[in-house]
Amino acid sequence: MPDQCVAGIDIGGTKIALAVADLEGRVLEKTRFPARTGERGPHAIIEEALAEIERMLGKTGAHLAAAGIGCGGPLDRKAGLILSPPNLPGWDEFPVVRIVEERLGVPALLDNDANAAALGEHRHGAGRGYKHLVYITQSTGIGGGVIVRGELVHGVYDGAGEVGHMTVLPDGPECGCGGRGCLEALCSGTALARRARARLAAGEASSLSSLSPNEVTGRAVAEAARAGDPVASRVWDEMIHYLAVGVGNLFNILAPEAVVIGGGVSEAGEQLFGPLRERVRARVRMLPPERINILQASLGGDSALHGAVILGQAARERRLEQTS
Ligand SMILES: [Zn+2]
Q1: Of 121, 125, 112, 144, which is closest to residue 247 (Cα–Cα)?
Q2: Residues 222 and 264: beta-carbon distance below 8 Å
Q3: How far apart are CA 159 and CA 74, in angstroms?
Q4: 133-138 β-sheet, strand order
Q5: pTM for this predicted structure
Q6: Closest to 318 in 3D by CA, of 14, 115, 114, 108
Q7: What is the rounded CA–CA span in Å between residue 28 and residue 22?
Q8: Where are the alpha helices (DSSP H) in the chain?
Q9: Domains, the chain, ranges and CATH?
Q10: What is each CA distance from 81 to 70, 92, 286, 296, 324, in whole angstroms?
Q11: Where are the alpha helices (DSSP H) in 65-211?
Q12: Fewest C-beta atoms under 10 Å: which of 113, 114, 248, 253?
């Protein structure tokens, strides 16, 4: 049994995931609970998370050394503030780092959840062994993280890695960011569902017509496409076209050793990755095709939680440097 451990907190719009891990990042205990953000504010949610961490610490018997927190952006990483993310109403300038540090009595570090997921896949998942990596989460929205020489790239104002908002269709559909034609507006699970609904509303014949509009989800589109439904297949194919544009851009700009894709849409596996690899290889002419390495994330829904643990390890190391 380790005598010291770190905690990871992954704050999402629908659920909070928590882990306690040893100093090498091996998860000893983990749990999750529904966020219920509509019913209660950030203080109550964080209080439940901290109580769960204390309960898990009691089970491991280890002494907590630090904590890491992943959360949807925007956020002020250096000030430790969450700045009203769209999926967390009421979390305005919420000082999550200060609260966690005061309540648990340990140093804490914050980063956005897509960056955390990139860290998780880089150290423990599909990206293990690579120094240059881009991670993309393709879920209800699209986020990403860029790792160069083993380190996350944050850029000015922590704005780097927003792969979901690169333009893949000039003047294309509106995006939640206010722009048009972003990767997220064309390739997220939400966009898949929206594009299928638009075709159904135009009267195109499809097995999806038997579903209510709410049931036409990204997952339903993927399943119907796999079964050969013409509307779902067309929508799926268009999604892969735009995703190949975006991923091709990433290879041309960064030439990473791998692009790792996680999130709900990526769970379609080879239905996504087979045609995507083929099309990106056809688009990118400046790299040999065998260097176009596109991988499915391997930590399932836990990429960002593993990343939060890595942020906790970094918080501990930073404190040791400051006190030595
Ligand atoms: Zn956008």
Answers
A1: 144
A2: no
A3: 9
A4: 151-152, 142-148, 133-138, 258-262, 294-296
A5: 0.96
A6: 108
A7: 7
A8: 42-60, 96-104, 113-124, 183-187, 189-201, 218-226, 230-254, 270-283, 303-323
A9: 4-117+302-323 (3.30.420.40), 127-297 (3.30.420.40)
A10: 12, 8, 41, 31, 27
A11: 96-104, 113-124, 183-187, 189-201
A12: 253
Residues found in the chain:
324
> For residue 321, how far is its CA from the centre of ligand 1 (angstroms)?
39
Q: Which helix (H) or strand (E) holds 65?
A: strand 63-71
Cα of 179 to ligand 1 centre, how many Å? Answer: 5
The answer for 188, left when phi > 0, alpha when psi is -120 to 50, beta otherwise, is: beta
- Taking the centre of ligand 1 as the mean of its atom positions, its distance from the CA of residue 162, in whole angstroms, is 9
The rounded Å distance from CA 238 to ligand 1 centre is 18
Structure tokens at 32: 């999750």
Q: How many whole angstroms separate alpha carbon 68 and alpha carbon 74?
A: 17
Q: pLDDT at position 89, please?
A: 87
Separation of alpha carbons 317 and 120, rounded Å: 17
Q: What is the pLDDT of residue 29?
A: 97
What distance in angstroms lies between residue 72's CA and the mean position of ligand 1's atoms? 15
Radius of gyration of the chain (CA): 20
